[in-house]
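chain below, 432 aa
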Amino acid sequence: MTTGAIITLGCRLNQADSALIAGRLRRMGIDLRPSPEGCDVIVVNSCAVTATAARKSRQTLRHLRALYPDSILILTGCAAEECCRSTAPAEGFDLILSNEEKKSLEEKLSPLLEKRGIPHSPVRRSSPDGRQTIFREQVFAEYPGKSRAALKVQEGCNNFCSYCIVPFTRGRERSRDFRETVDEFRRLLDAGFQEITLTGINTCTYSCEGITLPGLLEHLIGIPGNFRIRIGSTEPGEILLRVLDVMAESGGKICEFLHPSLQHGSDTILRSMNRHYLTGMYREFAERARETIPGIHIGTDLIVGFPGETDALFEESLEFVRSIGFSNLHVFPFSPREGTRAARMTPRIPEGTVEMRAARLRSLGEEMADAYRRSLIGSVQTVIPEECTEDSGEGWSGNYVRVRILRKGLRLGELVRAEITGMDQSGILTGK
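prediction:
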């Protein structure tokens, strides 16, 4: 039997892409294994959003080649995009696929398998869509051993933030064909998944045949079944305000959770970043969200040490973040990416200063996350257990907080209602 493994690095969209790759490998008759050891085919779905992520992708590739010299090693993802544009020598992979070429994995891999005499099923050729802003995957994702699934609905970005390499590695904004999106959603429900995350580079830009993200959500929550939808990768703006209204009317089918990127709490730095909003718009969104969805989880991403970030601008950002009262923070030191405008900006912030500022933001994030978790004590939440013992189960609530439920007979991956009664020393909520 021909065997394969997929190594996924980076974001939730990469996880969704890997699930689609899994579907393509299964269609070739390749049996997927959790470990690459002894596999005929190894796919590295890489990340390059930061310099550190790109370096980790290269290290993973070299490590796998050294361990498994006889395997067919495939590099894809955002680091592959960078590699395709680079004049540097290849690093030991047998096949490189850009993000767009993931769809042609089967026809590109087949000759390599044939050359080595490795058996596989007849290849299904990918057919071009012909539409520049709409795409079809022509395969359905597979999530073996998972209790939650992700559904890729959008790809690419037109924002060209000054620090970001994504528009160059993922291309311009495109949305997945509406009918194919709905078909895959139904298939994931039929496979037993009760939480499905809609993912993309920016899901707020979804648009197909006049249907935008709020319309897509309205259609999906109208499908019969016991499930919930989580929305990933959003940006503040008019669409997200309309999403709040759909969430409020969903009867709990849309998770009370949003993670719109802020990146900085100073208008001066936001302008330098070429972000398409200022702090006033972000504050308006947060206030509207809490009015519309009491108890909603609002998380965000922040960059610290962006060129030109003075002590005063950092303090301004810190105070803005504190005033919003986020439920969680993802803090990233500025990472200069070759090919972006920010890579040429000055003055650069000393590494030690960046580390101290990042530590202060993370400490604030921990305080706010702790306060948010405590605010949920006494509420009732829906939880999907991902780990179960004889007497309890542990998983994520709809508003993305870890909960341990004290009850016998819980089953993996099945929604359960729980009254939150307390919180342990590690920050995990307890419920019954």
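The mean pLDDT is 93. The first strand starts at residue 3 and ends at 8.
thats it, cya
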